Amino acid sequence: MKASSHKLSPALWEARKEECRRAARRLLDNTFVSKPGDINVEAIAFEAGCLCIEEGGLDGADGRLVADGKVGGKIRVRAGMPRPRFRFTVAHEIGHCCLHAGGFIDRTDSGKTFGIWNDPGEEAEANVFAGELLLPHDLLVPNVRGKSPSIKLIETVAAEFLTSPKTSEEGKSGGVSAKVAGFWA
Ligand SMILES: [Zn+2]
Question: pTM of the entire structure?
């Protein structure tokens, strides 16, 4: 964590968070996301830094990113996590890769780092990035505009954003597509 991050004024922190969201939106554009069901964390991890995802192999942590900017790397996620948690963990590690990697990077995250949102620093930055990646403002707004708030609406929107690509990636062979199909099966 960079000590300088703690000195940010509220205005600078807002600007920094917007930078993080912009980085997430760039990745969504680069992976041709136009609707919630397109948000495919496997494909995005690969696009972000040739990152592969593996479950398990962690000792007490929820997520870990080990990567080298030139040759790619790996995101490990604790085995058996519920799907939304799995996706958020991957998105958070992609955030570290996009925002904080200057060459080799090795970071480990546990439950509490995913709860840091307003304390300026790299953990909050990775969470802001992950939030925008999984619930992009531009895709979220059309889902709720003009509709009365209700539990049903929240459930419907959450379902649309948190479950996804299965069909479009099935039937293709090789690489990311095959792995994605496996993850969503
Ligand atoms: Zn982190």
Answer: 0.80
Contact 120, 13 (CB under 8 A): yes
CA of 112 to the centre of ligand 1 (A): 9
Give residue-wise pLDDT tens across range 70-109.
789 999 999 999 888 899 999 999 999 999 988 899 999 9
Taken in order 177, 182, 184, 185, is the CA torsion positive or negative?
positive
Distance (Å) from CA 83 to ligand 1 centroid = 18
Tell me how far the alpha carbon of residue 91 lies from the centroid of ligand 1, in angstroms.
10
β-bridge pairing 63-68 and 104-109: antiparallel
User: For the stretch 54-75, what's the b/e string if a residue is b when 16 or more beta carbons lie within 10 angstroms of its beta carbon?
Assistant: eeeebeebbbbbebeeeeebbb
Distance CA 100, CA 21 (A): 14
- 168 CA → ligand 1 middle, Å: 31
Q: What is the 138 CA–ligand 1 centroid distance (Å)?
A: 25
Q: Token pair of 30, please?
A: 């680069």
